[in-house]
């Protein structure tokens, strides 16, 4: 066999999808044909350019003994060879399609393998690559078998004629950059490598090649119709349905349909002469009808997320357990849909979606976002030379994934502008699979799509669309609307998702949305905890914009996920608590409530005094019932705050959750609490250095609080600053209001506290101040009034804004330092953090946590950890009661230190615990890539008065 001595690398910059590969087909695992995984340790050599080395390494007998080793599936940049690069939409190379830089990291991969003893001698074999970024050339036993592009798509090669029983040499040359990179400009890390499985599949004579399972459901008759079209004739059996038919033949029987809520799969077999293939068949029909996306006759409401594949150590090389963890976490958080942003996922993920039940928008591996910087000039999707590559991508996705009942919509790609290539893709898809709908967000007139899709549209615009008051083409106006991305979950947030949900539920045309996004793409890194863009010295990068998920990189749920779970809960529990009934509504689209058990409990001052089960009928979707609550426990004493809590729990273990897993809940207040009252009976006194009010001492000159009982208190004063969240910062491209920069401009992080007077009267110490930033006329006249009944200390803060305040305040409250605080108990909202527009999941109760546990570890440190509606809190021996309720936070660093930190590792605990008691907090919104906090959640500077009552618990 002769190898070329000079290596041509022209294919790297060729717009064609490749050569030598087999036509795309369904992805399946045969039950009897042999297969051999070639995952594992491979020899590896990195070169700086595509042509630095010739192809002699592919020859049999080549000695790679001194090469490094890498794990396949994997990315070499995460295994010590080179570094990852993060850019959102900017290409990290000059835009001159289809050319790529000479500096083109190229990884030669080598693996020698034997066939297992039982590998059949007859038949053929196929070598399958499930994902390689971005371009690969493959040799088997010295023969060049082809090259390909299309990173997150499978490519197969017929190799039977090349195999030997032992000593097979598989050589794969992978180039980081190729013409294909222009089509893969998704907002994520650039991670070259063989990052999905490599498998050798035996293909017996008479084996199935490609097949298409058509399984529809007629909701009127309750019948399912099955037809399996197969390239190779065979029989299809489904024992549970008594089906035994030839391929190509239709059969109609009574079935239970598949839905995301009721994912009924029937096990079947496709048997050809050469092999048996297990089928998991879900009967369902998806149509566009009456301007709505309907499944099995009913309109859907997507409660979805955008999911990138991510693992903090392995990047996009995901193992099955990680994929399952994603699906289970989604199901446990009431999520019913996934958009596979922005490429087809590992095929096993779709098996899990079929099995556990999730509606899937399967998105093609296509994004050319960086062309926006040149007004989309030369965009490959509007250039016929690239169309074969686009159709190749569409067909590889559709052929691979067409047998999944969970996939209901094909998406052409993301952020690729507009052009003929997209139309060609849509036409190809419709010709091949008329049973699913087509999505593409960039198609604003819906020329090629079946739904009007947008990203990050603000609430009022979505509402206008719901009311059919948007403009657009005649075609678009007849189509349903989805938000393929909304609720940008970067850092603290997203805020305002409950408000979106209310709008979605109010208008039929609005069929829900998909939060951006599922997981933070932080990379585990000893230097930083989790690394983000710029941490690897990238020339161009987009910082922590890559950390914008509902779960942290280690898959721990963030408060945003807990909030989303509550907002989209499939059971609505409503009532006012005092009339003895509760209204329960089934908000599922398909399932009745028979899987759920309901419980009531009754709390007195946050403490559960009685609980029991509540009998709720197995309501059908959309139905409601008024359910009687028991007689409330009596004798709760005067002034106690009382409420019902009603919860819907899984009645039994299910595939995705344990018995008693909480699905939905609500609290119905009965009687309000009595506000703390302190009679100002103690007469303040003064010594040479100190003033005394009840249990407290103050500096005689400044009026500053020094002690409460035996507790030292440091630096108590008004505080308006918070470490800006990513949503406060806003996105760099937004030239409308971005609060954090305005706050900094107006100096809210450097407020000066001018002392105007320290006054003693018969019953109070009054300290008058003006809190204002240098250079500006705006200020807050702030009066601290201290009184006591002898044992307890009351502070009333009055704030009067002066000047022309054009910005909201980040927060309004007081802060102070306490020594030696660790455990915190509180009666208020919990257990997790909440802000004005992220507090749906904040449950009123008695909670406790350590100061460390109160922190939310956002990958880039920022304001976090506030607890809402706090009636009282205790920490470090101090009890604080609020009038009215307050926002509580405590941390081992100041807000200024939190603000300065770039990574979690920058936060070093001090001995002092800094406590913030806030009367108000600015809402969170979603402005890191969307609308800011709605007006009703903004903290406008306005006259305010609020009080706290302090006591030393050790006295
Ligand atoms: C949109 C992208 O589709 C997505 O990939 C991600 O970048 C997201 O924004 C922000 O995190 S693009 C857009 C708002 C211009």
Taken as a percent bin, the fraction of beta residues is 35-45%
> What is the CATH C-level name of the largest domain?
Alpha Beta
- Under CATH, the topology of the largest domain can be stated as TIM Barrel
Quantity of strands, as a count: 58
Give every kind of bound small molecule, once each. 1-methylethyl 1-thio-beta-D-galactopyranoside
**Average pLDDT number:** 96
The largest sheet, given as strand count, sense and whether it forms a barrel, is: 16 strands, antiparallel
GO molecular function: beta-galactosidase activity; carbohydrate binding
GO biological process, one term: lactose catabolic process
EC number: 3.2.1.23
Organism: Streptomyces flaveus
List keywords for this structure.
GH, mainly beta, 955 residues, Immunoglobulin-like, beta-galactosidase activity, Jelly Rolls, single chain, disordered N terminus, binds 1-methylethyl 1-thio-beta-D-galactopyranoside, TIM Barrel
What does this structure look like?
This protein has 955 residues and is mainly beta. It folds into five domains: 10-203, Galactose-binding domain-like (Jelly Rolls); 211-287, Immunoglobulin-like, CATH 2.60.40.10; 295-564, TIM Barrel (Alpha-Beta Barrel), CATH 3.20.20.80; 569-671, Immunoglobulin-like (Sandwich); 685-720 and 746-819 and 849-926 and 942-952, Beta-galactosidase, Chain A, domain 5. It contains eleven helices and 58 strands. The strands form twelve sheets. The protein has a 16-stranded antiparallel beta sheet that branches. The chain has an eight-stranded parallel beta sheet with strand order 30-29-28-27-26-33-32-31. Strands 1-10-9-12-6-3-4 form a seven-stranded antiparallel beta sheet, with no helix packed on it. β36 (571-574) and β37 form a beta hairpin. α1 (320-332) packs parallel to α2 (347-356) and α3 runs parallel beside α4. It binds 1-methylethyl 1-thio-beta-D-galactopyranoside.
């Amino acid at each position: 066999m002769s190898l070329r001595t000079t290596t041509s690398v022209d294919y790297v910059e060729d717009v064609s999808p490749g050569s030598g590969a087999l036509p795309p087909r369904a992805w399946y695992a045969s039950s009897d044909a042999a297969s051999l995984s070639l995952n594992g340790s491979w020899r590896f050599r990195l070169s700086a350019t595509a042509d630095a080395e010739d192809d002699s390494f592919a020859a049999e007998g080549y000695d790679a003994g001194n090469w490094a080793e890498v794990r396949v599936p994997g990315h070499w940049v995460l295994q010590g060879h080179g570094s990852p690069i993060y850019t959102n939409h900017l290409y990290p190379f000059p835009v001159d399609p289809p050319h790529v830089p000479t500096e083109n990291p190229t990884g030669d991969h080598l693996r020698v393998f034997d066939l297992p003893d039982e590998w059949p001698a007859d038949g053929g074999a196929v070598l399958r690559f499930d994902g390689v970024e971005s371009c690969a050339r493959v040799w088997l036993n010295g023969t060049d078998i082809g090259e390909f592009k299309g990173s997150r798509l499978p490519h197969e090669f017929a190799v039977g004629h090349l195999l030997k029983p032992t000593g097979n040499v598989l050589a794969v040359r992978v180039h980081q950059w190729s013409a294909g990179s222009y089509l893969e400009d998704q907002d994520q890390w650039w991670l070259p490598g063989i990052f999905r499985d490599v498998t050798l599949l035996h293909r017996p004579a008479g084996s199935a090649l490609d097949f298409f399972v058509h399984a529809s459901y007629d909701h009127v008759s309750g019948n399912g119709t099955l037809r399996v079209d197969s390239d190779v004739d065979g029989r299809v059996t489904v024992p549970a349905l008594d089906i035994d038919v030839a391929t190509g033949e239709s059969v109609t029987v009574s079935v239970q349909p598949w839905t995301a809520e009721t994912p009924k799969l029937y096990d079947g077999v496709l048997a050809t002469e050469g092999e048996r293939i297990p089928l998991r068949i879900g009967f369902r029909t998806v149509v566009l009808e009456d301007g709505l996306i309907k499944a099995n006759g009913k309109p859907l409401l997507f409660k979805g997320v955008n999911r990138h594949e991510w693992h903090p150590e392995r990047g996009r090389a995901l193992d099955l357990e990680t994929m399952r963890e994603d699906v289970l976490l989604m199901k446990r958080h009431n999520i019913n849909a996934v958009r596979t942003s922005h490429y087809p996922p590992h095929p096993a993920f779709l098996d899990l979606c079929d099995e556990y039940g999730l509606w899937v928008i399967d998105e093609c591996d296509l994004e050319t976002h960086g062309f926006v910087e040149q007004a989309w000039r030369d965009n490959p999707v509007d250039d016929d030379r690239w169309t074969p590559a686009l159709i190749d991508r569409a067909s590889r996705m559709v052929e691979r994934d067409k047998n999944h009942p969970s996939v209901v919509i094909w998406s052409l790609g993301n952020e690729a502008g507009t052009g003929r290539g997209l139309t060609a893709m849509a036409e190809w898809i419709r010709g091949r699979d008329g049973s699913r709908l087509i999505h593409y967000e960039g198609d604003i007139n819906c020329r090629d799509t079946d739904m009007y899709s947008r990203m990050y549209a603000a609430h009022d615009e979505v509402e206008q669309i719901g009311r059919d008051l948007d403009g657009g083409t005649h075609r678009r106006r007849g189509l349903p609307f989805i938000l393929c991305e909304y609720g940008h979950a970067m850092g603290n947030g997203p805020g305002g998702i409950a408000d979106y949900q209310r709008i979605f539920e109010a208008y039929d045309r609005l069929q829900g949305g998909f939060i951006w996004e599922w997981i933070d793409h932080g990379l585990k890194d000893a230097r930083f905890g989790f690394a983000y863009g710029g941490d690897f010295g990238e020339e161009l990068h987009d910082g922590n914009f890559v950390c914008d998920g509902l779960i942290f990189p280690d898959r721990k749920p963030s408060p945003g996920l807990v909030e989303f779970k509550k907002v989209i809960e499939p059971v609505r529990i409503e009532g006012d608590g005092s009339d003895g009934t509760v209204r329960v509504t089934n908000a599922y689209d398909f399932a009745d409530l028979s899987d759920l058990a309901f419980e009531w409990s009754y709390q007195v001052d946050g403490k559960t005094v009685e609980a029991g089960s509540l009998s709720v009928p197995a309501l059908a979707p959309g139905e409601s019932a008024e359910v009687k609550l028991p007689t409330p426990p009596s004798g709760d004493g005067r002034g106690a705050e009382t409420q019902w809590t009603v919860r819907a729990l899984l009645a039994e273990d299910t595939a995705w959750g344990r018995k008693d897993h909480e699905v939905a809940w609500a609290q119905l207040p009965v009687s309000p609490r009595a506000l703390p009252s302190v009679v100002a009976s103690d007469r303040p006194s003064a010594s040479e250095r100190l003033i005394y009010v009840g249990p407290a001492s103050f500096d005689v000159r400044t009026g500053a609080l020094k002690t409460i009982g035996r507790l030292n208190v440091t630096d108590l004063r008004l505080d308006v600053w918070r470490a800006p969240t990513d949503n406060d910062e806003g996105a760099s491209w937004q030239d409308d209001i971005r609060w954090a920069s305005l706050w900094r401009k107006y100096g809210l992080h450097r407020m000066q506290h001018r002392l105007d007077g320290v006054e003693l009267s018969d019953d109070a110490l009054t300290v008058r101040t003006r809190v204002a930033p240098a250079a500006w006329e705006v200020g807050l006249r702030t009066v601290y009034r201290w009184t006591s009944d002898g044992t307890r200390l009351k502070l009333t803060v009055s704030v009067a804004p002066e000047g022309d305040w054009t910005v909201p305040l980040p927060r309004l409250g007081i802060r102070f330092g306490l020594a030696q605080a660790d455990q915190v108990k509180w009666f208020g909202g919990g257990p997790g953090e909440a802000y004005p527009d992220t507090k749906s999941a904040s449950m009123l109760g008695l909670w406790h946590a350590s100061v460390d546990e109160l922190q939310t570890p956002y990958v880039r440190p920022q304001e976090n950890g506030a607890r809402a509606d706090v009636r009282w809190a205790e920490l470090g021996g101090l009890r604080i009661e609020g009038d009215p309720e307050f926002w509580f936070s405590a941390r081992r660093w100041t807000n200024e230190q939190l603000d300065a930190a770039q990574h979690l590792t920058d936060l070093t605990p001090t001995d002092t615990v800094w406590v913030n008691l806030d009367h108000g907090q600015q809402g969170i919104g979603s402005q890191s890539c969307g609308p800011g906090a709605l007006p009703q959640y903004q903290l406008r500077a306005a006259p305010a008065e609020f009080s706290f009552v302090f006591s030393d618990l050790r006295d």
